[in-house]
Amino acid sequence: MSLDQDQAIARLMRFLSVEGITGQEKAIGAEVVKMLREIGVPEKAIRFDMANAKIPLPTETGNLIVTLPGTKPGPRRLFSTHLDTVPLCAGAVPNRKGNRIVPRGKTALGGDNRTGVACLVTMLAELLGQNLPHAPLTVLFTVREESGLWGARMVEPKELGDPVMGFNIDGGSPRCITIGAVGADRWQVEIVGKAAHAGVHPERGISATIVAARALASIHANGWFGKIRQGDHEGTSNVGPFGDAAGRSAGQATNVVTDYVQIHGESRSHDAKFIGAITSAYRQAFQQAAKDVQDDQGKTAKVKFTSFRNYYPYHVKESSKVIQTAQAVAASLGWQPTLKSSNGGLDSNWLVRHGIPAVTFGAGQHDVHTIDEYADVEEFLEGCTYALALATDNRGTQEGN
């Protein structure tokens, strides 16, 4: 597969230069549309959906969808990646150093996932520029992946044209194909205690901080925090923001017994039932701790614990057509790809949930979500080559997959 490497790298540098942290994807979405027009994608093939109107977090724009009818018969294939970056990428300036692109300052780079964006725009540029035959294609650029896979969750499957398989770009080497990933719960607990003068009558108060501390100590002692192994089941959990409802510190003074704490956390596992078990352990720990902390009248704190399934675990069978296709196309490039499962969520979690068998491969992003992030140029170009090979592949073009 031949492609214009200089143009591919130029696109990557261009997209890396446009800020677009999660929920604020309007500018990068507009830049991608501008580039799509430049490479000859028909205007009627480009649109934004209304996913942002359904996402329960402020989101500037919907998912960007490109739909091409194909130049040869066959079932439709989906290619996807996400537009947004983590907040640590705000203000990033890309700098090429040999085979790596790194951030110029103390920010993350945004290779997660501008490498995917540039990869798919390059795929489209080569398809149109070289007039390469291809079956019908849909390219999906999602929003708010980094803050909960929201764009992929809220996309309407019918707007994707009923693809029979999907290829999601998000990761390092394209020679490593992710065929499964964990699911996750997000949970929140509100602990309502009772304020009192901490120096004069502390016994009249009910400390929400102590309730939280006792609950989390119990969670840790019983093996429900961090990497979890309970019998034959495995998973992870974490406690995130710990403060008040406005994101400030829990308690505003040392001489007042803290009367309110809000905590957010997550539970993950490849086992859907065990995700619920982890979340349940947290709920029970907070409820028990609330009973154990009392004022001088025997009154206790109140606990409101809520959770929701952020995304479901999935595992695509190795005998499936999408994996057979991914492996066969990789082999045609002289690769021996490895198959793996991920402990992080991917847009593929929701694509599979929507009924689209999907796998994920990388395009050169490394050390993501840190100021040490970099993009590997060689892997990026390999990702572009792989995407183009998958788009022009003849397997399944004469019959369903």
Describe this structure in words.
By secondary structure, this protein is α+β, with helices and mostly antiparallel strands. It is 31% helix and 25% strand. The protein is built from 10 helices and 18 strands. The chain has helices spanning 5-16, 26-38, 51-54, 111-129, 150-154, 208-221, 272-292, 321-332, 347-353, 377-392, and strands at residues 46-48, 64-68, 77-82, 94-97, 100-103, 137-142, 165-169, 176-181, 183-192, 226-230, 233-243, 260-269, 302-311, 314-315, 338-342, 358-361, 365-366, 374-376. A 6-stranded mixed sheet has the order 1-2-6-3-7-16, with helices on both faces. Helix 4 crosses helix 10 (377-392) and helix 6 packs across helix 7 (272-292). It is elongated.
Question: So what's the overall shape?
Answer: elongated
Number of helices: 10
H/E series: HHEHEEEEHEHEEEHEEEHEEHEHEEEH
The proportion of residues in beta strands is 25-35%
Return the structural class: alpha+beta
Task: Give the % helix.
Answer: 25-40%
Write the layout of secondary structure elements.
Layout: H1 5-16, H2 26-38, E1 46-48, H3 51-54, E2 64-68, E3 77-82, E4 94-97, E5 100-103, H4 111-129, E6 137-142, H5 150-154, E7 165-169, E8 176-181, E9 183-192, H6 208-221, E10 226-230, E11 233-243, E12 260-269, H7 272-292, E13 302-311, E14 314-315, H8 321-332, E15 338-342, H9 347-353, E16 358-361, E17 365-366, E18 374-376, H10 377-392
Parallel strand pairs: 3-6, 3-7, 7-16, 8-15
Antiparallel strand pairs: 1-2, 2-6, 4-5, 5-18, 8-14, 9-12, 9-13, 10-11, 11-12, 17-18
